[in-house]
Amino acid sequence: MPFSNYFAHFTVLDYLSNALDILLVWFVVYKLLMVIRGTKAVQLVKGIFVILAARGLSGLFGLDTLSWIMEQALTWGFLAVIIIFQPEVRRALEQLGRGRFFSRNVMQEDKEQRDLIEALTKSVSYMAKRRIGALISIEKETGMNDYIETGIPLYSAVSSELLINIFIPNTPLHDGAVIIQKNQIAAAACYLPLSESPFISKELGTRHRAALGISEVTDSITIIVSEETGAVSVTKNGDLFRDLSAEDFEKLLTHELLTKESDSSNRWIWRGRKSDG
């Protein structure tokens, strides 16, 4: 049948149903991508696209052995994806059960971010004045589930009182990092990877080295309160911003967590005291 005659017998209802079908498929795919965003599954999805590209190119250039290997990878890939993506699949089903899969309240998210900034500013200011050491890492796009699993799971609402109580010396959870995920305290007493950079100043301790380490492997924002001096520092993308005032600290969090804030109002950040260690 010529392609031009394929749509000859289509009615208006057929066109509408096909258009709706395509839109629904794209919407479901988009929501699935939103579910896996910020997790290790993103890297695995990229790997799948690499395999598909390799399969196509190997067939195009007659690379029979590579083509056979890619064919086997695709044949058994569906089962592998189910096993590898198990946490993401479970999370998607949970969100679907709660009715959150197809809805996203932007205003609610904005309020939660502002409440998070307020709680962090209040708790960090309190701990800095009393020289209570603290290490808090805020997950952004790159997933931190591997590090969350090393700590004690909490999954509680963020409050300044809870953050302060966690880091009070000689309490069970004070040693290690708090990781905040999706505006919740996901876990406390977590282990973060230490930076191996030889350029870190000798005057900085384990908390700063851990904060730099996690900033080198994720895009998280990590807050450090020095137990010795009470100074507040923040790491991001391998950079360390030291000795921030309460006002500058709040502005930095606002800039990083509230993406709608204008860049022009936050230029001060890159004029702060930046240190490689």
What do these coordinates show?
The protein is built from 10 helices and 8 strands. The protein is an alpha+beta fold. It has 2 domains: about 5-100, no CATH class; about 105-275, YojJ-like (1. Helix 2 (about 40-60) packs antiparallel against helix 3 (about 65-75), helix 6 (about 105-130) crosses helix 8 (about 160-165) and helix 6 (about 105-130) packs antiparallel against helix 10.
User: Spans of 5+ residues with little confidence (pLDDT < 50)?
Assistant: 260-273
Q: In the CATH classification, which architecture of the largest domain applies?
A: 3-Layer(aba) Sandwich
Number of helices: 10
Structural class: alpha+beta
Please give the CATH class of the largest domain. Answer: Alpha Beta
Strand order of the largest sheet: 2-4-3-1-5-6-7-8
Query: How many independent structural domains?
Result: 2
Q: In this structure, how is the largest beta sheet organized?
A: 8 strands, mixed
**How many runs of DSSP E, i.e. beta strands?**
8
What average pLDDT do the residues reach?
Answer: 81
The CATH topology of the largest domain turns out to be YojJ-like (1
Q: Provide the helix percentage.
A: 40-55%
Report how far apart the termini are. Answer: 70 Å
String of helices and strands: HHHHHHEHEHEEHEEEHE
Please compute the radius of gyration using only Cα atoms. Answer: 24 Å
